[in-house]
Amino acid sequence: MTALDVANTLGVSRSTVNRAFTPGAFVASETRTRILEAADALGYRPNAIAQALISQRSRIVGIVIGGLTNPFHAILLEEMTERLQAAGLIAITVRLRPDQPIESIIPTLQQYQVGCAILTSLSVSRGMIAACRRAGLKVALLNRVEYGSDAVSVCADVEQGGRLAALHLADCGYRRIAIVEGTAGAWTNEARTAGFRQGLRDAGLSAIAELPGDYTYQAGLDAADRLVAMPEPPDAVLCANDLTALGLIDGMRGHGRHVPDDVGVIGMDNIPMAAWRGYDLTSVHLPFNRMLDRITEVALAMVAEDDIVPETTLIACRLILRGSTRQAGEPR
Amino acid sequence: MTALDVANTLGVSRSTVNRAFTPGAFVASETRTRILEAADALGYRPNAIAQALISQRSRIVGIVIGGLTNPFHAILLEEMTERLQAAGLIAITVRLRPDQPIESIIPTLQQYQVGCAILTSLSVSRGMIAACRRAGLKVALLNRVEYGSDAVSVCADVEQGGRLAALHLADCGYRRIAIVEGTAGAWTNEARTAGFRQGLRDAGLSAIAELPGDYTYQAGLDAADRLVAMPEPPDAVLCANDLTALGLIDGMRGHGRHVPDDVGVIGMDNIPMAAWRGYDLTSVHLPFNRMLDRITEVALAMVAEDDIVPETTLIACRLILRGSTRQAGEPR
DNA sequence: CTGAAAGCGCTTACAG
DNA sequence: CTGAAAGCGCTTACAG
Fold it and tell me: What is the mean pLDDT of residues B237-248?
């Protein structure tokens, strides 16, 4: 079923059929209605593949996925897919494993002529943007900033969120505060921990320990072991994300520590599990909807225009108070 | 950068360039090497969009996503994307919300000429396959069977898995066993609960209660409230999936019940959270890798051939023993 | 083994 | 407002 079939059925030219499907094209509105109705009856839909080929403008957006084990990324992907779809774009997904070089997926992205590639935080390492640019791919970063690479970037302001978290612990009366980091080298981790440190400084404190991690549940479990082994263990812990915070809680409980009395815990991302009754984790909520609005605008602009002004959008986070921290203002 | 550019650079015809990229085509192997090298140097990649248009064979597979809040689906999607990619296919994702009719996404699938649409268990309701067929879409079902619809289907044998779970509870000495169901009307739920019932029957038992649910954590929490309110509460519970089992555990603990002594709990899907220390949930592991192998084969066949033999593949599950159930053979 | 020609289903000028 | 023509970058016969 092609435009020509519809044209023949109605005795008009295929040009006219095409115009009926092109918003703003000059067609008699009566003709348009007739065509649209006939097309609908015949089950005709313009072939997006042919449109992409001839117009040299792809409405295909490549989403580089990775780390969907983290519910935060999974939910973000699901919502993003829907937003892009609503904006008339289509998402192709390409998986990039943690240690896989981006060069290995660039050919795929090129072959499908993606109008824009969206890289999400995990498994995006420095230099990837340069590699994409060399390959002629336009890229947008979601939840990641690459300094000095004049890329378009949409992020939650996790540094501000981190500050919020640290200040809250201080408000609750916690004084011996430790930090468990996320994946070393990742922008989000640097921003999150920088926020933690700044917040502690603002409160006249500093971290009594900073442990490495990788954003996993296991990292939290391991951190708990190390923290309780300290001569003077912390009375609160700032975790780079929720998954790690949940592991830390389980680890602390395994050592007989009570949350939030013996130790307060804050995570980041506000994944559904943070609200689970067994954890009730105080967390930093990332501005999901705003991020999605913006990344959709960005994708739309990228597929439509060739010259994109590099721009970084940082959207504020907010703290979600739950039971893994004492009430603010409570005496120690 | 097109095949013609490469051809001109080397002084051959574009036909020859094309042959170099077509496995099994007749080209002097020396010519082929020369072309491939030049193409590489020039950064040429065959345009998949043009290939799809001319060959009338799309290598695009539409994955209908939904319910990525459930880690099981998120991880499955991530792995599936990679497998399809390795098989030379590409995945476009289209979101279908729980109560959205499939008709609303069929046009998108058609416009991108998907060679095959993969529908996953959640948000797939009866009649969807017929709707796809009317629209000329070839569909494969993942983790779902639609009786009487001669569709191709790849599933974990969750009925067998359910039986395993029920038999295990009996082996552990539990006698008053309840069932918490998943989403009513979904094939997976019917199969899972049918397996539970069969297993109980095989052990000479029957469920003392069957509560409705929807595969969420909240459903488990709610079920716990109702179960402890029974005059004689169950000593074990079979949950249609892990998310619900985890909610049930938290709910039971909230009521002061100890797992597994006061109440044994088994889930299904074996999501990462099941192994978390705070839960340590005995669960039924679905055969991830086998399912992915098979669905990839199916997708490959569907994009290549027009006549597909309807076939259902059921792959056995296995039980993962953890701490939410007593040891088998223990006295009551 | 290599090349020239037709054509996939559209969009984009260009005529009328 | 409508139609005819060219062409996107390929694949698929068909010649040589």
Answer: 98
pLDDT band at A195 (very low <50, low <70, confident <90, very high): very high
CATH number at residue A261: 3.40.50.2300
Whether A195 and A310 map to the same domain: the answer is no
What's the Å distance between residue B91 CA and nucleotide D3 C1'?
Answer: 39
> Is residue A160 classed as helix, strand or coil in its secondary structure?
helix
- Residue A329, classed as helix, strand or coil, is coil
Tell whether B73 and B30 lie within a shared domain: no
Whether B146 and B176 map to the same domain: the answer is no
**What is the helix (H) or strand (E) element at residue A9, kind and residue range?**
helix A3-10
In this structure, the answer to whether residues A123 and A205 fall within a common structural domain is no
Give the tokens for residue B204.
């000479």
Residues B188 and B241 in one domain: yes
CB contact under 8 A, A110 and B45: yes
Residue A135 belongs to a domain: yes
- Is the CB of residue A111 inside 7 Å of nucleic acid strand D? no
Shared domain check, A41 and A85: no
Please check the confidence at residue A122 and state whether its pLDDT lies above 70: no
Q: Which residue out of A68, A76, A97, A216 would a mutagenesis test of the B interface target, given it has the greatest number of B Cβ atoms within 10 Å?
A: A68
Query: Beta strand pairing status for A282-285 and A318-320?
Result: antiparallel
> What six digits make up the tokens of A166?
């640290």
Identify whether the C-beta of residue A251 lies closer than 8 Å to the C-beta of residue A218: no
Residues of B in contact with A41 (CB under 8 A): none
Give contacts of B94 with chain A, Cβ < 8 Å.
Answer: 81, 85, 90
Please say if the pLDDT value at position A66 is more than 50: yes
Answer whether residue B55 is part of any domain.
Answer: no
In a domain, B225, yes or no: yes
pLDDT of residue A332: 44
Using a CB-CB cut-off of 8 Å, the residues of chain A touching B110 are 45
Give yes or no for a contact between B228 and B198, defined as CB atoms under 8 angstroms apart. no
Q: Is B95's CB within 8 Å of A107's CB?
A: no
Tokens in use for A217?
Answer: 């549940």
Whether residue B171 is found in the same domain as residue B223: yes
Give the percent of chain B with pLDDT over 90. 70
Question: Which residue of B74, B91, B111 is in closest CB contact with A48?
Answer: B111
pLDDT surpasses 90 at B263: yes
Residues 18-47 of chain A: which lie with beta carbon within 7 Å of strand D? 19, 26-29, 31
CA distance A243 to chain B (A): 10
What is the pLDDT, as a whole number, of residue B121?
Answer: 66
**Both structure tokens of B65:** 């996503």
Res B150 pLDDT > 80: no
At B283, phi and psi to the nearest 5?
-150, 165
Same domain, A192 and A275: yes
pLDDT exceeds cutoff 80 at B286: yes
Nearest to B68 among A77, A91, A110 (CB): A77
State yes or no: pLDDT of B239 exceeds 90: yes
Q: Which domain holds residue B148?
A: 60-156+287-316
Dig out the tokens for A151 from the structure.
């890329």
Q: Which residues from chain A sit within 8 angstroms of residue B53, using beta carbons?
A: 47, 49-50, 53
Number of domains making up chain A:
3
- Residue B267 domain-assigned (yes or no): yes
At A120, the pLDDT band (50, 70, 90 cuts) reads confident
Q: Which nucleotide is nearest to B26 (CA to C1')?
A: C1
Alpha-carbon gap, residue A296 to A260, rounded angstroms:
39
Confidence of residue A80 (pLDDT cuts 50, 70, 90): very high
Residues B70-112 have pLDDT tens digits of 999 999 999 999 999 999 999 999 999 888 888 899 999 999 9
Scanning every residue of chain A, which has its alpha carbon at the shortest distance from the alpha carbon of B47? A111
Q: Is A85 in a helix, a strand, or coil?
A: helix
